[in-house]
Amino acid sequence: MSNILNISLTKVFCIIFVIFLIFGIIWLRSNVVGLEYKISSLEKKKAYLMKENKAIVAEKVRLLALERFENNESRGFVFPDRIRVVYVKETTHKEPYRISYKQGK
Question: Would residue 58 count as lying in a domain?
């Protein structure tokens, strides 16, 4: 009788173990699938942000382009030539700054 009881208890424990093992594998697989979805959405967001970053860098380059300033002389953007450059000499004492068109005075 004891031997039959041990065999039936062993069968019950084996069945319970197999059921827990199956549910554990299902739970693990569902978590892996969920993580794959999160990774996919983050990769899409990364691609979008990289594209947006490239557009912003291109806009920055366009705004800082030298030709933009060279073509806007009618708006008052003019590069100074050597004649119109004003040099300001800073003094160590508290006296007014001296201005000249020649460097070193």
Answer: yes
In percent, the amount of the chain with pLDDT more than 90 equals 47
User: Which amino acid is located at 83 in the chain?
Assistant: I
According to the model, what pLDDT value does residue 69 have? 62
Number of domains within the chain: 1
52/41 Cα distance (integer angstroms): 17
d(CA 64, CA 58): 10
Residue 105 has pLDDT above 90, yes or no: no
Mean pLDDT of the chain: 81
- Segments in 64-91 forming alpha helices (H): 66-70
Distance separating alpha carbons of residues 26 and 11, to the nearest angstrom: 23
Does residue 105 belong to any structural domain of this protein? no
Could you list the beta-strand ranges (E) of the chain: 87-89, 98-100
Q: The domain containing residue 86 runs over which residues?
A: 2-100
Question: What pLDDT does 55 receive?
Answer: 95
